[in-house]
Every structure is written in structure tokens, then in C-alpha cells.
Design brief:
single chain; 310 residues; alpha/beta; Rossmann fold; 7-stranded mixed sheet; globular
Length: 310
């Protein structure tokens, strides 16, 4: 689909975009009930169809309208053991940027896995803010300092209070990420760091067009390295590093199925051959470790505050 869209981009406010897909909300409600036993009808109330737009200026993918999930929807998702992964690649990378004595804020900290990991570093003070009451309660039960609420409410009273502000797998859940990013920039001190990770819309997940969790009311925007490179146009930041996640063992079966589905069915590539590939690819990739050479799910961006890109 290549219909031009005049909807304003929620990040750069441009009206130059292309409609890439139209979603039927009745179908989304049905699939959520079937796959997750979660009723999202209230999340999508009054919305019959949703268009997916691709901004031609900043590169952001966004939806119109962009209905976000209620706290109760996230609480129900959070009860699946796969929803909050304990040991994340981006946590390990971000921890290398935390120095002794730093004050760190994680926005959207969930049950506090990253905060717990860095709290043991010398002199580090780690705080969190979390929208989900259920996840915030779990984090507090670990002895972590976590506020319930929005980062936009913290910024006016704690501007410049942190050496590092980070958010992992959060930006894609926001209908209007511009205000969120401004608050994060305001909270970090001059020359402090901002660290964000998101699903990489240019990675293998682009092949998963029917992925429920990558659509409203769960994911409301789609990010790529292009979008992060654009951010210094709007905020007083400089991009220090962009890192792509190697394929994780957790995502290996998903990756394999998506790639195998792309193989055209020809004379010598029959369904029996496809089935052999499905059964054999994952065990071989796992045993050899070769999957780590493949491009994985997420991208991480490290920025410093105070200097714009030239």
C-alpha cells in the first residue's frame, strides 16, 4: 500500500508519510481473546480501523488513531512468564555506561531487573518509575526505589538530577514519544547519558506482519537507527553509539520460522524439504552458536546531552 497520509507525525510533526497498512480492530480484539485470553475491547473502544503510517522525514512508524493499552491490559500481560525477561542484552550493554557514584533513572522499569543489577555497583543510586502498579509492586518488594507514575510528572521537579536516564523497550509503547523524550532529556544533567532500546523495525521482526504485540494497543510506534540519528534535529543530544542486538536463543525459533517461510516453493524446494529445514535449523544453529552472528530483535542507542550533531 502506498497511499499518502496527511496525519501529523507524533515525533517530528511532519505531514509527509505513507500509509503502509490498515488494521481491523474487530479482528485485533478477536485475536487477543484467542491467543492471550485478554479482552482489549475497551482499549480500542470506538475505533473501527487503524492505519499504520511511515514518516518520510524522521522515519518513525506510527498509527492513526493510536489507542494505548490500559494499565489492566499490561498487568495481564505481565503475568506471562515470557513478558518480562530477566537477563536482557541491552541491560548488559547499558550497565557498561554506568560509572561508580552515578545516579541512574530507569523509566518503565517493570519489575526492576536492571535496577537490581546495577544497584550493586559502587556508589550507584538507582531509581525507577513505572506505570504498571503490578510491576512497580514487584520492584519495590526487592527493596528498590520505584515511583508509580509518568516521567513527564518527574521532569519539572527533578530536572538535571540524573547522570544516566534509560528506558528499555518503552518508546514503542508511546503514542506521543516527543514529550516523553523531552522529559528524559530534562532529567539528565549536562553531558549525562540517555540510553534507549527498542524493537528494531529493520530487523527480522519486519517479516512478522501479524505480530499482535507489535500493533496497537501494545506497540504504537516503530523505531529504527534512522529515527535515532534524526533525534539531534529536535533535542540537545548527540548520538554516541548505535548497537544492534545479536540474535538471542529465545528468538531463534521465531527467526527460523520467519526466514523459512520466505523460501519460494519450487520444483526442488517442496514441503517435505521445508519441514526438514524447520526441524533441523534451530538445533544446528543452537549447537554451533552460529545464531549469534545473525541480527537480532532490538537496537540500542546511547546519547549524550548538551551537544547537537553538526
Amino acid at each position: 500500500m502506498s497511499v499518502q497520509s496527511s496525519v501529523v507525525c507524533p515525533l517530528c510533526s511532519a505531514r509527509k508519510a505513507v500509509v503502509t497498512r490498515v488494521l481491523d480492530t474487530a479482528y485485533l480484539v478477536w485475536r487477543w481473546r484467542e491467543e492471550y485470553r485478554i479482552d482489549i475491547s475497551e482499549d480500542l473502544a470506538g475505533v473501527k480501523a487503524i492505519t499504520r503510517n511511515q514518516c518520510a522525514v524522521c522515519g518513525l512508524g506510527y498509527y492513526d488513531p493510536s489507542p494505548s493499552g490500559r494499565a489492566s491490559t499490561y498487568d495481564q500481560l505481565g503475568r506471562f512468564d515470557w513478558y518480562y525477561v530477566g537477563d536482557k542484552w541491552e541491560h548488559r550493554i547499558a550497565a557498561t555506561y554506568v560509572q561508580p557514584g552515578n545516579r541512574v533513572l530507569e523509566v518503565g522499569c517493570g519489575p526492576g531487573n536492571f535496577l537490581a543489577a546495577i544497584s550493586g555497583l559502587q556508589g550507584v543510586r538507582a531509581d525507577g518509575v513505572e506505570m504498571s502498579p503490578h510491576a512497580a509492586a514487584i520492584a519495590r518488594s526487592k527493596g528498590l526505589t520505584v515511583e508509580s507514575g509518568k516521567v513527564e510528572d518527574m521532569a519539572p521537579v527533578q530536572a538535571g538530577s540524573y547522570d544516566v536516564v534509560c528506558a528499555f523497550q518503552v518508546l514503542e509503547h508511546l503514542a506521543s514519544p516527543g514529550g516523553f523524550l523531552k522529559s528524559c532529556v530534562d532529567l539528565v544533567r549536562e553531558n549525562g547519558r540517555l540510553i534507549f532500546s527498542v524493537p528494531d523495525s529493520e530487523s527480522f521482526i519486519r517479516l512478522s506482519q501479524d505480530n499482535l504485540l507489535d500493533q496497537p494497543p501494545h506497540h504504537l510506534t516503530h523505531w529504527s537507527q534512522k529515527v535515532f540519528r534524526w533525534l539531534p534535529e529536535a533535542f540537545p543530544v548527540r548520538v554516541e553509539a548505535l548497537r544492534r542486538e545479536p540474535l538471542s536463543l529465545q528468538h531463534l525459533p521465531w527467526y527460523a520460522n520467519l526466514q523459512i517461510d520466505r523460501i519460494p516453493k519450487r520444483r526442488y524446494v517442496t514441503w517435505p524439504v521445508i519441514n526438514v529445514l524447520r526441524r533441523g535449523f534451530v538445533p544446528v544453529a543452537r549447537s554451533t552458536g552460529a545464531y549469534r552472528l545473525l541480527r537480532g530483535h532490538s537496537v540500542l542507542c546511547v546519547m549524550s546531552k548538551g551537544t547537537r550533531a553538526a
